[in-house]
Write a structure and sequence with these properties.
This protein is of the alpha+beta class. It folds into 2 domains: about 30 residues; about 110 residues, Immunoglobulin-like (Sandwich). The chain is built from 3 helices and 8 strands; from the N terminus they run ααββββαββββ. It is rod-shaped, with a radius of gyration of 25 Å.
Length: about 140
């Protein structure tokens, strides 16, 4: 009788180990959440002074999905160069939504670079922003 019970327990453990992933999904399913990230440009300064007549800026955005063992680049965008004196007009019409399907519970990181150019001089500012996991809609305000 003891031998029969131990064989039964061993068989049950073997089945549980074999189908662990399916059992885990059945007991606690992974929620699939789509994420929308709204990108907004905001002028950090008033660029109306005459010194900004020949200066421009360019924005590059990369959206990265981090998992346990790898990084997946989801979106890479390079926006056209614009004059800083026209930034108010650009920022009024720049409001873009990036849709990320099945974001789940993995962290999303946005890497954005702003490149300023003025009479042959170049200044590049790199920024990294980590988005919240649980929110379905998030906003990133980019100050130029």
């Amino acid at each position: 009788m003891k031998k029969l019970i131990s064989i039964f327990i061993f068989t049950l453990m073997l089945i549980t180990v074999s189908f662990y992933a399916q059992l885990k999904q059945w007991i606690r399913p992974i929620s699939t959440v789509d994420k929308n990230i709204v990108l907004t440009i905001s002028p950090d300064n008033s660029y109306r002074h005459k010194v900004y007549d020949h200066s421009s800026a360019q924005l590059n955005v990369t959206v990265i999905k981090l998992s346990r063992f790898r990084r997946d680049t989801l979106v890479t965008k390079e926006y056209p160069e614009f004059k800083l004196k026209n930034l108010t007009a650009v920022s009024e019409r720049f409001n873009e939504t990036i849709h990320i399907p099945d974001a789940g519970s993995v962290p999303i990181v946005i890497n954005y670079n702003i490149t300023y150019k003025w009479k042959g001089s170049i200044l590049e500012i790199k920024n990294l922003k980590r988005m919240d996991k649980g929110m379905a809609k998030d906003q990133l305000l980019i100050h130029i």
